[in-house]
Write a structure and sequence with these properties.
Length: 237
């Protein structure tokens, strides 16, 4: 059932995924209940449900000190997602650096490569100083070496990528709302509010210069987000 639900999510059929999740009838153990709640929180974008899911195996969720924890790889993926949605990971680089160091120490190579990919994606969204940039390059090379050595697929986080393959206008809308910006604020000195409104609703195309300006205002990296012909940043499983 879990694989079926994840396939529906990877196919972006979120309504059917939610239906399948709600129709589960088998008796659940703690890990199955955690999976159900986490996916439900993901599909409904409900931080409280995500917190409830993680609390099943991490009762002291709000007082986690990573060096003292024994986290499974799936728990780490869920925790990263929760912390990112909560905003903790984007406030400074210290939390994500601690996560990467923990990943490097405690996980097998395949899980390490997958987690590095997500952690680096998050780190790239935070303002980095020179030391942070060095650390970013170090873990990037380490991840790439693991992918090359073991022939892992770069779509290992397909759940995340599928969730973030979306039209540009939808992506811009989501990011504007996340940053509590109005259409007036984001369009200022770039285009008229009316033009931006049409762009965000998918009724008007943008030239590359306007895209770069909008991404700069949203503190997003233009070259990174435009890779592979789809929009991929946030969210994980």
């Amino acid at each position: 059932m879990e694989k079926h639900i994840l396939k529906l999510i990877n196919d972006k059929d979120y309504d059917k995924a939610l239906e399948a999740l709600e129709s589960r009838e088998e008796k659940e153990n703690d890990f199955q209940r955690q999976f159900r709640l986490f996916i439900q929180g993901f599909l409904t974008n409900d931080l409280n449900i995500l917190q409830k899911a993680l609390s099943i195996t991490l009762p002291k969720l709000n007082h986690i000190y990573l060096p003292e924890m024994a986290l499974g790889a799936d728990e780490m993926k869920m925790l990263l997602y929760y912390w990112k949605k909560e905003g903790r990971l984007l406030q400074n680089t210290n939390v994500i650096k601690n996560c990467m160091e923990y990943t490097d120490l405690y996980y097998a190579d395949e899980e390490k490569a997958k987690l590095f990919s997500y952690e680096l994606d998050i780190m790239k969204q935070i303002m980095m100083d020179e030391k942070d940039q060095f650390l970013y390059r170090y873990f990037s090379m380490k991840r790439d070496a693991l992918f090359h050595q073991y022939h892992f697929h770069h779509d290992a986080l397909s759940f995340e990528i599928a969730n973030n393959s979306m039209p540009l206008h939808t992506y811009l809308y989501n990011k504007r709302i996340e940053r509590n910006m109005t259409q007036e604020e984001i369009s200022e000195n770039i285009c008229s509010v009316v033009t931006y409104s049409r762009i965000e609703s998918g009724k008007q195309e943008m030239n590359s210069n306007s895209i770069k300006q909008l991404f700069h205002k949203l503190n997003l990296e233009y070259g990174y987000v435009l890779c592979d012909d789809h929009w991929q940043i946030d969210d994980v499983l």
